[in-house]
Amino acid sequence: MTNSKPSVLLIYTGGTIGMMQDARTGELKPFNFKALTKQVPELEKFDIKLSSISFKNPIDSSNMHPRVWMELATIIKDNYQQHDGFVILHGSDTMSYTASALSFMLENLSKPVILTGSQLPIGIIRTDGKENLITAIEIASAQKNKKPIVSEVCIYFEYKLYRGNRTYKYNSAHFDAFKSPNYPALAEAGVDINYNNTALLKTSKKTLLVHTNLDNDIAVLKLFPGLSKKITLAILNTSGIKAVIIETFGAGNASTEEWFISALKQAIEKGIIIYNVTQCSEGAVIQGMYETSSTLKKIGVISGYDITFESAVAKLMYVLGKKLSHTKTKQLLERNLRGELSL
Do domains 7-210 and 218-334 have the same CATH topology? Predict the structure, then answer.
């Protein structure tokens, strides 16, 4: 950018933060940028060039879909040279999935892409959206020596900035809705915004590559005591399935019953990727630590190590979308691509 003022593009997809409450009827209405500046007059005090794009038909985040991620990635690609940073207003329920997906889709990202939202609409007096929006914009425009301080996909919520592909939504009743269990916060906002510089990804000097081919032919098999053979086989034998995330116990442990191991082995032999992700909120899959995970490693189950479930879903869609060989696909899943793994 050559402008003296940092330029930030605000992208509204839908969600609670963009709803405005009609003072007369109490009805919640969709986002309007002019109305937003009235609700948040502080935006006019920023020494920032602020512009916006709103989805023609804003969506509830429960209806989030890979095609929306493709649309977001394309918007960023088309506006990349004109702006120094991006803020995406998004419903909180699936925000971690979107942040994870964009982190993989935007290769060589050298500018901040900050997702934020709120638990209460921006037009409500007690809204958390006002602070989230203002600080997200400030982070998206923040520079040091004319270079962005943050150059990755993040979530900003309730005074903390997180790496997007390390988060999950853990609370629907409080303002601090997100956690990053296996990676520290990238910044904390108080009187000042204090950046954790050692935790931030280094800015890429390569050209941005935007990947929009995603493959969602995946399924999830969550283990629990008493999981039936009938249900397990139904999932593993689903027509067209390419990968299955198995949510295991503890450090990646699973039943060693002969029928279960045999079912996984047969699926792997058919070319289906089996991706081991722990059910625990913190910690990692370490296949081979216990006997109950050694067998999984022997038959070719891939370890997700400390990846979040949300990031595992997005990473699988991204890697499968590249249509690589089976060996290369497995290698990419086990490799740290965008800071999603502690490797």
Answer: yes
pLDDT tens readout for residues 104-150: 999 999 999 999 998 887 777 788 888 899 999 999 999 999 999 99
Indicate the pairing of strand 147-148 with strand 7-12: unpaired
More confident: 41 or 267: 267
| Domain 218-334, second-level architecture | 3-Layer(aba) Sandwich (3.40)
* Half-sphere exposure in the Cβ direction for 40 (13 Å, CA): 24
In this structure, the number of other CB atoms found within 10 A of the CB of residue 87 comes to 27
Per-residue pLDDT averaged across 259-270, rounded?
98
69 to 207, 215, 317, 319: CA distances (angstroms): 20, 12, 11, 15
User: Whole-angstrom Cα distance, residue 104 to residue 102?
Assistant: 5
pTM for this entry = 0.94
Q: What percent of the chain has pLDDT over 90?
A: 77
Catalytic residue set = 16
User: pLDDT of 298-327, one tens digit each?
Assistant: 999 999 999 999 999 999 999 999 999 999
The pLDDT value given to residue 60: 86
Domain ranges of the chain: 7-210, 218-334
Q: What is the CATH number of domain 7-210?
A: 3.40.50.1170
User: What residues form DSSP beta bridges with 147?
Assistant: 144
